[in-house]
Amino acid sequence: MSPYHRELESERDRTIGSRPLSEGNGEPEECKPRIRRGLYNMSIHEGNVIEMIVCATGIPTPTVKWYKDGQEIIGDGPDGKRVIFTDERGIHHLVIVNASPEDEGDYSLEATNKLGSAKTEGSLNIIRPRHVADSDDRGGMPFPPGFVRQLKNKHVFNHMPTIFDCLVVGHPAPEVEWFHNGKKIIPGGRIKIQSCGGGSHALIILDTTLEDAGEYVAVAKNSHGTASSSAVLDVTVPFLDNIKFNGEIDVTPYLTEEYGFKKLNTASLPTPPDRGPFIKEVTGHYLTLSWIPTKRAPPRYPQVTYVIEIRELPEKEWTLLDYNIPEPVCKVRNLEIGKSYQFRVRAENIYGISDPSPASPPSRLMAPPQPVFDRRTNKVIPLLDPYAERALDLKYSEQYACAPWFSPGVVEKRYCAENDTLTIILNVSGFPDPDIKWKFRGWDIDTSSPTSKCKVYTYGGTETTLAITGFSKENVGQYQCFAKNEYGEAQQNVLVDLATRPNFIQSLTNKTFSSAQPMRLDVRVEGEPFPELKWMKEWRPIVESSRIKFVQDGPFLCSLIINDPMWRDSGIYSCVAVNDAGQATTSCTVTVEAEGDYNDVELPRRRVTIESRRVRELYEISEKDEK
Fold first, then answer.
1. Which PROSITE patterns match (predicted)?
2. Torsion, Cα of 405, 410, 413, 415 (10° steps)
3. Domains, the chain, ranges and CATH?
């Protein structure tokens, strides 16, 4: 089941049971639109089939519109390139056949009814294949068909769409036929067959039923041979499809306040791989990822597939790379040379998708090989496998050559507490991969001695890490990292100082305030670097507002000021000081005595005595008035 199908069944079921009934008449209560299952960022290979699915609910039923880059999308009909339809369950689909670079952009869906609107957005990125010259340009050498991308097993819910896709090479270009349980598939109705440029072929089942389960085979033929690829489709009918919500049975056990149905059993979700993927092979055209399979202990469903996510360093967002991978190995193609990437894996079954695994070490491709030239015939020798591994050619790699440079955003002053471990991570780029050397105060750092506290790790030639265990005063100073190749040299300096634990010179003390005056709590704190202060009341964070202010006066004094305090401001106040060396805490009890009708405790009143002498000095009082 693909990532954009996960939880779609539960969302569909939630849609049925999420209509609250108004009192008295038993009719559903009107509500504004809500997106139950939205769009997300996708990266799809050029020539593949794309399907975007959105579940939107609301009463009255909202009308929906699809947009690309702010412009409304109009469907091209059932046999066109872009197909827009809403199935019988009210789920909205946008299918794009034979994806091309023109389909890249930001997509959105807006659902509207008379009470309001809701919107979901996501971007589509088209991964362009490496350009391979036509066979005629390479001498016209024929070769039999071969599957570069095989069919993958599928497991979907009843009435969900299914897509089988593959990538075929061969010269002349092979023809592909599809078979289901040994019978040839004839396209028509809900079954479509697409043949796209670049050898991409797809079988699309718009509305999958139980009769569609079984083995599917794609057979590629040309005049020089035949090749085939097969996969199994498993179809499951959800239990809730058999429940009628017409009052015949009590559906209360299946309902919740928030979603309308009971949530999925998390015990049935698969667990992610314990360790991140590792790079098994790197060539000029692709790299091979492998990972330890996930655990399949009961009651988890035994059929588990994997999802690969990718991000470009330094630390960009994770995006979907591939899905429905049946085995713990995957070839990643169409990466850009000179850029560093990280990968992580998720496990998926019919109940949902797991959390991600740890990320892989950074990696990048080498320069692609130069085409082989036959001097006898003065023609280019074609490669039977367009992704075959070839040695680097120095002349070809010169166009990718560049001097080393360090990624920006490095914190040039760091702190480390005594006896802690200092870790400095730097990202460096350059081609060929530069040689990396670390120095301390101008001296080479000894990392080879078994008693040395310093270790240097380099991943993929692009990320270097310096780790110092048991940091002490002797390790305080400037560290330099040098990256050098034949085209230049780069240097990055990092100054490291000893961090000291925060200490409260003046702690909080118990106080009583009147609501007629501002309330102020003062602390004096020291530490290196100067700690970050967090104020809390009853161990919950306090946020600044128009009434509450955090003030720092001088290098040590920090205050919490509350204007117009109220009786409910009474309680236990704490101040936590945090820096790289640790943290310190101080607390006190504050009592606010309110005035007026809300005063629970009377304030003692002072007796004011007015002397007659002073009154006579201020006013002229006659003897009659005194009597």
1. FN3, IG_LIKE
2. -120
3. 3-128 (2.60.40.10), 143-236 (2.60.40.10), 266-353 (2.60.40.10), 403-499 (2.60.40.10), 507-598 (2.60.40.10)
